[in-house]
Amino acid sequence: MRANYRMQRLFVTDTLSAGAALEASRDHFHYLTNVLRMGDGDAVLLFNGRDGEWRAELSFPTRKRLLLTPDEQIRPQPQPGDLHYLFAPLKTGRLDYMVQKAVEMGAGRLQPVMTRHVQGKIASLDRLRANAIEAAEQCGILSVPDVAPPRRLEDLLADWPQERRILFCDEDHQSQNPLPALSAITERRLALLVGPEGGFSEAERTLLRSLDFVTPIPLGPRILRADTAAVAALAVIQATIGDWR
Ligand code: SAM
Questions:
Q1: Residue 130: in which H helix or E strand, if any?
Q2: What is the location of CATH 2.40.240.20 in the chain?
Q3: How many Cβ atoms from other residues are within 10 Å of residue 202's Cβ?
Q4: How, if at all, do strands 53-62 and 65-75 pair?
């Protein structure tokens, strides 16, 4: 069921059930009353990643308090997306963009990976999570992806669950077309790995290419920026072996 884009959608951490009013957070109070100028009896959509999506009505017991009362479940909670997105951190603005786009494109788990030529860093997992929540609110996703702490590439590969295939965007691939490699994939559990702006080192590329559970894929004849590569790879994966089919 597609999301209703005419109503404001907000992520909350509280349990959602019919008639159980929740106190709006300070941020939600400010956004709904001062920015959107909503008032008594107006309605929003709420989700928490567990209880589906609910229509909730606004009411003001006092001038400084806002209650949100769920009255109808609009969509049940779906299964979360199962595509893991492994990425080398970028500088802040591009990292925010990349995380938002990855969530929009259906990533179910975000895993920062530290590689040799990484230039950015993960200053705050909360910021990654805030970007993931914002993207989920905007595009109607009801499960906010998990955000995992950064790991070194070698460590991640050393204890990787081998039934989940890693699709590794290899800027040094000898072909240009990702479709032959993608159409040969039989696993349902997948992860996508995109490198840093500085690319993968030769040692990292050699290691990745040597592993049975890794498939290198090209993304055309041009070198893409890492955030562009993320969107391009997620689009081609979702369209061929993912949830766009
Ligand atoms: N510095 C590298 C170079 O000049 O070759 C480019 C790195 S690129 C900006 C960042 C990441 O995006 C790469 O590590 C790779 O994962 C992905 N990427 C970009 N273009 C790609 C392509 N044409 N094929 C496969 N992966 C690509």
A1: helix 125-139
A2: 9-75
A3: 10
A4: antiparallel
At residue 108, what is the residue type?
A: G
Q: Which two tokens stand for residue 50?
A: 């567990």
As for ligand 1, residues whose beta carbon falls within 6 Å of it are 169-171, 173, 194-195, 197-200, 218-220, 222-226, 229
CA of 195 to the centre of ligand 1 (A): 7
> Which of 223, 236, 237 for a ligand 1 pocket mutation test, highest count of atoms within 8 Å of Cβ?
223
Cα distance between the two ends of the chain: 15
Tens digit of pLDDT at every position of the chain (245 positions) = 667 778 999 999 999 999 999 999 999 999 999 999 999 999 999 999 999 999 999 999 999 999 999 999 999 999 988 999 999 999 888 999 999 999 999 999 999 999 999 988 888 999 999 999 999 999 999 999 999 999 999 999 999 999 999 999 999 999 999 999 999 999 999 999 999 999 999 999 999 999 999 999 999 999 999 999 999 999 999 999 999 98
Give the distance, in angstroms, between the CA of residue 135 and the centroid of all CA atoms in the same chain: 8
Q: Which are the contacts of 118, defined by CB distance < 8 A and separation ≥ 6?
A: 88, 89, 196, 198
pTM, to two decimals = 0.93
Atom of ligand 1 nearest to the CA of 193: 16
Q: Which of 3.30.10.20, 3.40.47.10, 2.40.110.10, 2.40.240.20 is the CATH number of 9-75?
A: 2.40.240.20
